[in-house]
Amino acid sequence: MSSEKVETGATKATGAPHGVPVLGASGRRIVYDENGKPCRSCNTLLDFKMVAGKQKASDVTSKTAGAATLASIAAPAQQEPKDCPPDVEQLGRSSWTLLHSIAATYPETPSQEQQSDLKSFVNIFSRIYPCWFCAGDFREYIKREEPKVKTQEEFGKWLCDAHNEVNVKLGKPKFDCNLWKQRWKDGWEDGSCD
Ligand SMILES: Cc1cc2nc3c(=O)[nH]c(=O)nc-3n(C[C@H](O)[C@H](O)[C@H](O)COP(=O)(O)OP(=O)(O)OC[C@H]3O[C@@H](n4cnc5c(N)ncnc54)[C@H](O)[C@@H]3O)c2cc1C
């Protein structure tokens, strides 16, 4: 499938039907699947609802006049509904939690089999991740930066860099990778996680 790169890091299926919104209320490009339907796990909930006619872009803009960008203010205005399929952000948060938690429990000196299992997992993950354009970019990253699985520390840092690549793409600050273990394994030194 051919695709078009856009500023949010999203790519859009070129088969998007005529007469449907191209940009969402968040300012991001709407991602459609191969059947021309908006992809829930590829769009923010706000944009998904806007395309479904359940949220008007004007509802957001009128409440937020004067803000720098729609994208930066739209997300907090949106309440996450309970027990519904995830949007791109919920899916991402949960997936990063799983991935970093795997790093946190990966052995410090893994066997050959454990190293090979982890490599396979990361590769398969990059092929089946439900947000397909996210998955495509992740596969490109893995091609450029091969997963490092020789030790827990090595994998934790590799994953942190991979996550930072997405953060930068989305205009978010980079996370300090020296802190990955406090964030995902030991808890913060100030004791706030105790
Ligand atoms: C493989 C993958 C690819 C993705 N690609 C896209 C994409 O192309 N477009 C898109 O819109 N969304 C993408 N996402 C989702 C996106 O990364 C975020 O998960 C989503 O935007 C929600 O962000 P958040 O601000 O809640 O925090 P998240 O980025 O989900 O981070 C969760 C928590 O992890 C910690 N953290 C942040 N950065 C790091 C780091 N570098 N290392 C360790 N811990 C960290 C912080 O404590 C943060 O609160 C992707 C997710 C995954 C798993």
From TrEMBL:
Family matches, as Pfam families: Evr1_Alr (PF04777)
Locations listed in the record: Mitochondrion intermembrane space
TM annotation in the entry: none
Cofactor(s) named in the record: FAD
Keywords tagged on the record: Disulfide bond, FAD, Flavoprotein, Mitochondrion, Oxidoreductase
Keyword Ribonucleoprotein among UniProt keywords: no
One function term, GO molecular function aspect: flavin-dependent sulfhydryl oxidase activity
One BP term from GO: cellular response to oxidative stress
The keyword Nucleus is annotated on this UniProt entry: no
A single cellular component GO annotation: mitochondrial intermembrane space
Highest taxon listed in the record's lineage: Eukaryota
EC number(s) given by UniProt: 1.8.3.2
ERV/ALR sulfhydryl oxidase domain location: 84-184
Protein name: Sulfhydryl oxidase
Organism listed in the record: Kuraishia capsulata CBS 1993
